[in-house]
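Quarterly update from the structural biology core.
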Amino acid sequence: MNSKFVLVAALAAGALSSALAQTTSPAAPAPASAVALPAPQAVPAKIALVEFLEAAAATNEGQKARADVQKKYEPTKTKLEALSAEIESLSKQLQVAPATMSEDEKASRARTIDTKQKQLQRDGDDATTAYNADMQDAIGKVAQKLGPVLIKYVQQNGYTMLLDNTGQPQQGGLNVLWAPGTDISQAVVDAYNASSGVTAPPPSAPSAARPRPAAPKPAAPKQ
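Predicted structure, tokenized:
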């Protein structure tokens, strides 16, 4: 899990107070009659790292949502595979066509193959777009519910800053090439699974690769 992008800045006032204590210019000497106040103490930063989108997809509910979307598109996937196989078969037939076949017949078959290839490209692009949109929506809904669990975990465990390691940039985010901290992704997944009541899905049998869904972009969790 690589550190990539900042999602949330300071979650507690401690880190901000520490920064202000270092940057504020010294105050004028207090009158002798004034009561001396203790100097502000810098609060050590405790940084948490999380792969927010990956964590949402890794929850039991997220896994079930992904499986439901994949099942929905199984018929489309089968149809595209059948069309691809047909194109491959027609192409091989044309390659081994007998010398007695007329040029007009060869040209007609080539046009048929070209038409089917364009159809495959078009249908494949449409299916990928729809699949990605459905997957983004499904995981995004889980991510919205994961946000409060994440913030609660951070607060209960005394973290003062939360950094998101998600592999895609958040809008307006800043690149973080490296950041010290504790990766709490799995701990948050476990906490969410415990609160959601959704059981872990059974292991699925290996299947052919599906179009890779675009990562959802839920709003950053708010305190």
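The chain has one domain: 13-19+43-196.
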